[in-house]
């Protein structure tokens, strides 16, 4: 199997909202986005699928070494990194941003709680903000401020993920909601870990949703007019995640402890087309 075919298969298996805007792109950009997604998915799987932290750490160290080969004249071993070796120079993808994604996975190995929102933002920057920056580079931009938009939009998307996954994360021993917020709303960690929502938990989650919604607005406000057309695919992903946030609120924010809300594929396609034609206004 060729490296790009491996990446395509990895992407198709995920059925992620991340993929919904790809079909609108020219082939070189489609391929680059697919490779970037496969890279992120492989790293995420290291943390999610490995029950032994020591083995996961060894795997992350291996990925750092193989990524180093992408930028230093050697042939990487993994097919995703082999594909990355082709697209990285084509789209000027910086090594340090790709390494930051591995840093984010490292945080997942070492940390299961975040004391403050600033602590959480540092994590979100590594697992989502830099991904937004890399996507922005693939799509093309003319204004430096567009990278600030990408970082803020990455934060908005990751906050939405965190809200959606509260129950699943708790069952895996993790709480990404800042502990300072739990204290503010009088929600003991045990409420989340035991999956038993309270009125205080509902208020906490309503606050998280409001914060995420405001982050979307801030991100869109940062995007320069000159780069809006080039960044349409990123805005499609944002509009799908924003619809997911709306759906979580309609369903009842307390229910994130019980199950995950998802946007059906046909609706994702409708949202993608609408955003492509009319833009995204949170």
SSE blueprint and pairings:
Layout: H1 3-14, H2 27-49, H3 53-70, H4 79-90, H5 95-110, H6 117-139, H7 145-164, H8 166-171, H9 179-184, H10 189-193, H11 199-222, H12 232-251, H13 265-278
Helix pairs in contact: 1-2, 1-4, 2-4, 2-5, 2-6, 3-4, 3-5, 5-6, 6-7, 7-11, 7-12, 11-12, 12-13
Quick overview:
The chain is an all-alpha fold.
What can you tell me about this protein's structure?
This protein is mainly alpha-helical and 282 residues long. The chain is built from 13 helices and no strands. It has helices at 3-14, 27-49, 53-70, 79-90, 95-110, 117-139, 145-164, 166-171, 179-184, 189-193, 199-222, 232-251, 265-278. The longest helix has 24 residues, at 199-222.
Structural class: mainly alpha
Assign an overall shape: globular
Helix and strand sequence: HHHHHHHHHHHHH
- Rg calc: 19 Å
Strand content: under 5%
Helix content: over 70%
* Low-pLDDT ranges: none
Sheet having the most strands: none
Contiguous helical run count:
13
List keywords for this structure.
282 residues, mainly alpha
């Amino acid at each position: 199997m060729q490296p790009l075919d491996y990446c395509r298969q990895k992407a198709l298996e995920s059925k992620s909202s991340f993929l919904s805007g790809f079909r609108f792109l020219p082939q070189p950009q489609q391929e680059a986005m697919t490779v970037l997604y496969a890279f992120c998915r492989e790293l995420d799987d290291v943390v999610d699928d490995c029950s032994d932290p020591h083995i996961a750490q060894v795997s992350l160290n291996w990925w750092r070494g193989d990524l180093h080969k992408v930028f230093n004249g050697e042939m990487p071993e993994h097919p995703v990194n082999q594909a990355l070796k082709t697209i990285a120079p084509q789209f000027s993808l910086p090594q340090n941003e790709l390494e930051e994604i591995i840093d984010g996975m490292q945080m997942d190995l070492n940390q299961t709680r975040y004391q403050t929102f600033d602590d959480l933002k540092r994590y979100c920057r590594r697992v989502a903000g830099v991904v937004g920056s890399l996507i922005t580079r693939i799509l093309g931009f003319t204004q430096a401020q567009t990278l600030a938009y990408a970082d803020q939009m990455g934060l908005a998307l990751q906050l939405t993920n965190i809200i959606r996954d509260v129950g699943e994360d708790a069952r895996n021993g993790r709480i990404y909601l800042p502990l300072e917020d739990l204290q503010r709303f009088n929600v003991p960690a045990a409420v989340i870990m035991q999956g038993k929502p309270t009125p205080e938990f509902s208020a906490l989650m309503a606050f998280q949703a409001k914060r995420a919604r405001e982050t979307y607005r801030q991100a869109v406000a940062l995007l320069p007019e000159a780069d809006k057309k080039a960044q349409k695919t990123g805005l499609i992903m944002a509009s799908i995640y924003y619809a997911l946030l709306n759906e979580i609120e309609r369903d009842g924010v307390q229910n994130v402890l019980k199950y995950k809300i998802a946007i059906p594929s046909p609706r994702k396609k409708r949202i993608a087309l609408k955003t492509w034609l009319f833009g995204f206004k949170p």
